[in-house]
């Protein structure tokens, strides 16, 4: 389909969608909120122009739903999810994903609070609007390129929804237990890995349908770059905190942390040496220290096992009873129990 014909068909679809939404808008208050949300979503995710990102004024209209009621916020997120689930146009789907990303990054709390239950997979229903790995490719090279970006950006948005909600406050990070701190690092590493899997924006074609000439794809790249910078900032804060806890990490936490740091470094597009980049230098330093601690703890455990003398079953049972009855007071993880 040529660009002019595609633009004409897209304009006709948008006109029909606006007319249908206007005719089906009932005057009741809940339905009025849903109708207003549907119109706002249609304006932010039009078929035409096909290669342009959502207009700024329509994105601001989406954000304005965060200044209203929770019912209006839920209606907006539900309308975006329905738009994403029903469309087969990769440009519309990518615009809907960018709009959802905007709500996640800049939306008010009542908007962000509606995103996980409506977008992530529900355990009972199994519906997941972001499961777009089988999004149709279309019939033209430009549609193939956009469909690849839709599949990738949907997966990235799904991972962003799983990130820790709180920012990298040093006091909060210092209050976390070692397993919790390591667990917070895993979704951040997953985001960094997924950003590196972005489709390659080749410039083999000089036409306006080339990915580098598509403003919608360029906007997606810009948003993903902001996510990469934010993820590295959050990872860096946790790396600095973990650097102070290497000696206190358990064996299992040390192994998990070493694997996460290897995943983070693997395939990373780093310009220059590690010494030129403080972030990657801190990651490499922590990985080397953790790997050294894992090796030392493993060697120590092997030595202890070699020193253990074989004993009879009755002696082993006696030792368990003595350790259970005469081991002293029980140690709790929280210090507030020590005051009782």
UniProtKB/TrEMBL annotation:
GO BP of this protein: clathrin coat assembly; clathrin-dependent endocytosis; vesicle budding from membrane
Location of the ENTH domain: 29-171
Entries under PANTHER family matching the protein: CLATHRIN ASSEMBLY PROTEIN, OS09G0468150 PROTEIN
Subcellular location field: Cytoplasmic vesicle, Clathrin-coated vesicle; Golgi apparatus
Entry superkingdom: Eukaryota
Keyword set includes Membrane: no
GO cellular component: clathrin-coated pit; clathrin-coated vesicle; Golgi apparatus
Primary localisation category: cytoplasm
UniProt-recorded name of the protein: Putative clathrin assembly protein
Key words of the record: Cytoplasmic vesicle, Golgi apparatus
GO MF term (any one): phosphatidylinositol-4,5-bisphosphate binding
Pfam families noted in UniProt: ANTH
Organism name: Ananas comosus
InterPro entries with a match to the protein in the record: ANTH_dom (IPR011417), AP180-like (IPR045192), ENTH (IPR013809), ENTH_VHS (IPR008942)
Lineage of the organism: Eukaryota, Viridiplantae, Streptophyta, Embryophyta, Tracheophyta
């Amino acid at each position: 389909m040529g660009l002019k014909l595609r633009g004409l068909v897209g304009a006709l679809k948008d006109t029909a969608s606006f007319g249908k939404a206007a005719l089906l808008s009932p005057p009741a208050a809940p339905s009025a909120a849903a109708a207003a949300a549907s119109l706002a979503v249609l304006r932010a995710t039009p078929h035409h122009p096909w290669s342009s990102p959502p207009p700024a004024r329509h994105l601001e209209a989406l954000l304005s739903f965060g200044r209203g009621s929770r019912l209006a916020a839920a209606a907006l997120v539900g309308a975006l999810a329905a738009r994403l689930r029903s469309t087969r146009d990769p440009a519309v789907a990518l615009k809907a994903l960018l709009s959802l990303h905007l709500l996640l990054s800049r939306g008010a709390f009542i908007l962000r609070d509606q995103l996980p239950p409506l977008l992530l997979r529900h355990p009972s229903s199994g519906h997941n609007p972001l499961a777009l790995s089988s999004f149709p490719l279309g019939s033209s090279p430009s549609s193939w390129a956009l469909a690849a970006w839709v599949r990738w950006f949907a997966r990235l948005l799904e991972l962003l929804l799983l990130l820790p909600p709180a920012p990298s406050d040093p006091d909060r990070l210092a209050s976390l237990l070692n397993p919790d701190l390591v667990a917070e690092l895993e979704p951040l590493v997953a985001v960094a890995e997924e950003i590196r899997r972005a489709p390659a924006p080749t410039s083999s074609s000089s036409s306006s349908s080339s990915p580098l000439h598509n403003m919608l794809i360029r906007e997606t790249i810009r948003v993903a770059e902001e996510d990469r910078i934010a993820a590295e900032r959050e990872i860096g804060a946790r790396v600095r905190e973990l650097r102070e806890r290497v000696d206190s990490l358990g064996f299992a936490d040390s192994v998990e942390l070493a694997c996460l740091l290897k995943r983070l470094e693997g395939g990373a597009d780093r310009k220059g040496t590690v010494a030129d980049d403080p972030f990657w230098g801190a990651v490499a330093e922590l990985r080397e220290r953790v790997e050294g601690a894992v090796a030392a703890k493993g060697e120590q455990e092997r030595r202890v096992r070699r020193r253990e003398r074989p004993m009879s079953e009755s002696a082993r049972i006696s030792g368990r009873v003595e350790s259970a009855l005469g081991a002293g007071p029980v140690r709790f993880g929280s210090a507030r129990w020590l005051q009782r």
